[in-house]
DNA sequence: ACGCAAAAAGTGATCGTTCACTATAGTCCT
DNA sequence: AGGACTATAGTGAACGATCACTTTTTGCGT
C-alpha cells in the first residue's frame, strides 16, 4: 500500500541553499556556470550538494527557462531495423547537449501526423525529428511553434524523399555487372509505397536502358522473401536472366531460393544482388552481394539538420556517400553461352 | 536570423479563461475530467479552446502535479534488434496512458548505470524500464525515488535474469533430435557475458547428459557468424557431430558454412539449429531450424511489470510461452551410419 | 582613509497548472 | 419559508527553478 512512498522528498535547491547558508540564487548560479563564486562559497555549495545528493529538477527548470533540452524522434512503428539509425541520431544530439526520446507512432500517416502535432504542442520538446512523413496540411501548423525536421524514407504520395531513397548504388552495380558481360537483367522491386523502392526501380530501368542491356521486366514485390521466389517462378521458361537485382537482401534470398528451385545455379547461371547487408548474408551459400548502408551516419545527419535549425546555424555540408557495395559470391561473370543469345 | 521566432506566444490556460469569461480553474477542470460544468459554461470553454487552438503545457502540469506521465526505456546501444521489444513495451504503456521515451545509453555497465541514475533523478520520469542490467550498488539509491524495473537479458555477474534467458526451447530441441536418432551433439555458445548465452549453454550440457547422449563439447563463441565457422573448423577430423546447436541464427549460418567447407552435408550429415528466427533464415538453403521469440510480448510484459509497480497493482500472471520452435530443412534424421558408432 | 567600481550574493517576481479551500447559486425536504 | 445539501465557480498558494534587479562586500588607486 505504501511501498514506493517511503521515499523521502527530493531535496530542492532551497534545501541546498539552506544547508550551505547561501541564497537559492547562488546555488542556481553554481549549477549553470561555474563562475562568479568565491572559492569558499563554491566549496560550501558543492559540499551541500554532495551531502544531499541533490540533482536539479529538470521539469522545474524547463518551466522557467522555457527550454526542455529534449528532442523527440518520431518514427513509424515497425519500420525496418531503425536502431542503428537511432544510435547515430542520438549520439549527435547528446553531443550537442540534448536528451533524445524516441516516440513511436503506429497507424498510418494521419494518426502519425496528429501524434506529431500533439508532441510539438506538448511543450516538452524543442525540436522533433520525424523519420516518417506527415500530412502536408499539418506541416504549416507545425513550424510555427516547434522546429520540426522531417526526414522520411517512407512516403505515401508525399513530396520530399529522404536520402535513403538514393538509389545510385543500383546504377553502379548494374554498370559493374555489364562490364562483366551481363546482358539480361531482371528486377524484383520492393513495396511501391516506399520512396526507396520506387527510386531503386526507376534507377534500374534507367540504367539498363542507358547501357543498352536487355531487361526481362520488373516484378513488383513487397520486400518479402516470398516475393523473391514468386518473381523467379513468374518468369517464362525461355527467359532466363543473367543477373537479378533484388530490392533488398531478404528478397535476394528468396530469389536465390527460387532460382535453385528451377535448377539455376547462383552465380553460375544467374547473379543476384541484394541491399541492406543483413548479418547472415555473409554466411549463406552463396554469400550475398549487397549494399551496406551507413545508417548511423544517416541518423546523425538528420539530427544535425534538426539541431542546425534549432540554433540557426548553417548545417555543415557533408557529401560522403552513405553507401558501399559489397561484392560477394552471389555475383560473378555470366555463363559463357549467354553472350550469344539474340 | 529570426525564422522560428516569428511564432506567437503559446496560449495559456489564462488566455482561454479570459476568452471564455470564466476562471482558469474552471478551464482546468474541463481539461482533466469533463464533469461538473454547466452545459453553457462547458460550451464557452470548448469554443475558446478551439478558437485559440489551445493545448495544455505539459511541463507546467507536471510541475504542479509532480507526475510526468512519461516513462523512459533505457537500453544498451546496439543490442540485437530491440525494435520489436520496444513496440510491445510502448503499446502497453500507451494503453495505460503513459508517454514512452526510449533513451539509449552506450558504453558499459558503469556509464549506463550512471545514466540511469541521472534519468531517475531528473524528475522527468515516473518509472524507468531498463532492458539492461545496472550495478547493484546503484540499485539501492534508485528505488528510493523512482520506480525502476530492470528486465535485463544481458548481465555481468548480476542476480536477476530476464525471461529472455529462458533456454527451455534448447531442451525441447535436443529431446526431439534424440528421438530422431541423433547421438553426437555439439554446441556453439554465444558471448558468456550474456545471461542468455550462459543459460543456453547450461541447458545444452544438462540435457545432453540427462538423455545419455554424447557431446563433443562446447565452443565458446561470441554470437558472430565467424565463431560458427571457427567452431566447426576446431573439431578434430575423427569427431563429426550429428547435430549442432548454435547460439543463434547468425552462428548457425556460420556453422552451415563451416560444415560445407569440410564437405559435410546439412542436414544429410549434420543437423543444425539456430535461435531468433531471422528473416532470411527461411530462404537459405537449407532453410534454418530456429526458435521464434515473441519479443513484442516480452516487451509488453516487462512494461506491465513496471506499471504494476507504479500503481501498486499486482501484475497479472501470464505464463504463455514466449518461444516457438520452427523446424525447417536444416534438421533431419542423422545419417544411417552414425547409429553404429561407439 | 576615502571613494568608487567591480565582484559576489540576495530579493522578489514569474513560468503555466493544479490543489485545497471558500463562495455563490440552485435544489429539495419538512 | 427556512435550513441543509449539492452542484458549480472562484481565490490564493504552491510546485522548483531562473530572471531581472537590488544590495552588500571586496579590492584598489590616490
TrEMBL record, chains A, B:
Keywords: DNA-binding, Transcription, Transcription regulation. SUPFAM superfamilies: lambda repressor-like DNA-binding domains, Periplasmic binding protein-like I. This is LacI family transcriptional regulator. CDD domains: HTH_LacI. Pfam families: LacI, Peripla_BP_3. Residues 11-65 form the HTH lacI-type domain. GO terms for molecular function: DNA-binding transcription factor activity; transcription cis-regulatory region binding. It comes from Streptomyces dysideae. It comes from the Bacteria. The keyword Transcription applies.
Amino acid at each position: 500500500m505504501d511501498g514506493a512512498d517511503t521515499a523521502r522528498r527530493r531535496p530542492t535547491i532551497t534545501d541546498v541553499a539552506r544547508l550551505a547558508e547561501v541564497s537559492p540564487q547562488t546555488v542556481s548560479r553554481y549549477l549553470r556556470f561555474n563562475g562568479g563564486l568565491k572559492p569558499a562559497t563554491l566549496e560550501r555549495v558543492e559540499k551541500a550538494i554532495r551531502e544531499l545528493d541533490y540533482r536539479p529538477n529538470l521539469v522545474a527548470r524547463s518551466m522557467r527557462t522555457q527550454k526542455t533540452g529534449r528532442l523527440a524522434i518520431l518514427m513509424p512503428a515497425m519500420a525496418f531495423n531503425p536502431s542503428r539509425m537511432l544510435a547515430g541520431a542520438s549520439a549527435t544530439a547528446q553531443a550537442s547537449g540534448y536528451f533524445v526520446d524516441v516516440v513511436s507512432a503506429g497507424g498510418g500517416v494521419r494518426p502519425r501526423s496528429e501524434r506529431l502535432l500533439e508532441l510539438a504542442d506538448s511543450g516538452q520538446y524543442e525540436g522533433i525529428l520525424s523519420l516518417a512523413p506527415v500530412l502536408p496540411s499539418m506541416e504549416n501548423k507545425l513550424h510555427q511553434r516547434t522546429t520540426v525536421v522531417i526526414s522520411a524514407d517512407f512516403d505515401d504520395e508525399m513530396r520530399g524523399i529522404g536520402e535513403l531513397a538514393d538509389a545510385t548504388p543500383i546504377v553502379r552495380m548494374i554498370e559493374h555487372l555489364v562490364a562483366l558481360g551481363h546482358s539480361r537483367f531482371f528486377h524484383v522491386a520492393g513495396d511501391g509505397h516506399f520512396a526507396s523502392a520506387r527510386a531503386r526501380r526507376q534507377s534500374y530501368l534507367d540504367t539498363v536502358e542507358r547501357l543498352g542491356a536487355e531487361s526481362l521486366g520488373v516484378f513488383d514485390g513487397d520486400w518479402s522473401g516470398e516475393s523473391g521466389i514468386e518473381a523467379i517462378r513468374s518468369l517464362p521458361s525461355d527467359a532466363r536472366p543473367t543477373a537479378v537485382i533484388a530490392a533488398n537482401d531478404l528478397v535476394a534470398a528468396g530469389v536465390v531460393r527460387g532460382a535453385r528451385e528451377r535448377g539455376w545455379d547462383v552465380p553460375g547461371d544467374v547473379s543476384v544482388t541484394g541491399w541492406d547487408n543483413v548479418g547472415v548474408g555473409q554466411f549463406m551459400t552463396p554469400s550475398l552481394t549487397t549494399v551496406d548502408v551507413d545508417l548511423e551516419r544517416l541518423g546523425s545527419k538528420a539530427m544535425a539538420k534538426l539541431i542546425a535549425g534549432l540554433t540557426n546555424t548553417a548545417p555543415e555540408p557533408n557529401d560522403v556517400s552513405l553507401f558501399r557495395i559489397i561484392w560477394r559470391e552471389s555475383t560473378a561473370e555470366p555463363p559463357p553461352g549467354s553472350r550469344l543469345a539474340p
